[in-house]
Amino acid sequence: MIRFWRVFVQAVVFEAPGKINIKDIPEPQAGKEDILVKVKAAGLCGTDLHVYKGDFIASYPIVPGHEFSGEIISAGADVEGFKPGDRVCVDPCVYCGKCDFCKSDRENFCRDFRAYGLHFNGGFEELVSVSYRNAYQIGSLSFEEGSMIEPLSCVIHGIKRIGLRAGDEVLIFGCGPIGLMLMQVCKKSGASRVIMADVSRKKLETAERLGAGATLLNNNSFEAGLKKLFPFGADVVIDATGIPQVVQNMSAHVKDAGKLLFFGVCPPDSRISINPYEVYKRELTIYGTFSLLHDFPSAIKLLQSGSIDVRSLASHQFSLSEFMQGFNLMLEHGDFLKILIKP
User: Which UniProt keywords apply (predicted)?
Assistant: First the structure.
């Protein structure tokens, strides 16, 4: 009698908004242009929380996880430049290549935008199949560093958006992993001073170790302390909290003719109040930034050169079966930095 055996892998599955299962699913199959990657490290991101809540672009059921790295275990017949054993990270963004945005080098606004971890199964599983066109060699970088290339790429895209100038003074709200990456990239991009603000003393201490020009605890003495550092405001103010009230108050801390960057992801139904006369009279420029845009090569080079430290940002590690421990830390807004899942 012939028996047909089906192979399964462990995965985290968002069945629907608000519903998570950790279960065995059929092993993914690699097509002719795909590589099968054994995931070694995958980062939990605030976007995963939005997907869980159902307020971000995603399909269900879905294996989340758009920040991941691993080792290739097999490659399709038409794959070029990759082979089993290669250490890779994955750009999660999948573009149609046909729409007006794709043809004008603004693929992050692709009219048929898709992504691993949102529309195709992502990195919170033991094995994942991805197009080789989305993979990048990480060489001797650790898998933990490799899993943080995606958020670092988003940071690079945001800083490119604002056209940071040599000598600019920068104020950043939020000392999570994104805020701390923003701080380091601003410094490498020519900022003369980067001041970090947060409600957590522990996170501010990490910012100090990573080279912040100064740190400010957001408490009753915050405004007075900020006034001493920036009597006329900062050239650039960046939000990395995604808290609408913080975003609303950013203009109070920026210099005339200054720039505001909305980096943190606020709830889609949130609203803030901005005085249009103030924007007009003070010639303020407001920037948004979404996702990334071919920034993986730059992020990899920065990590390989040792210019950016992301290893210090990994505060917790959990196995796939322990996923809910890490996810609950995010749900409870615990005192953490980057949470990594190690399948």
Answer: Metal-binding, Oxidoreductase, Zinc
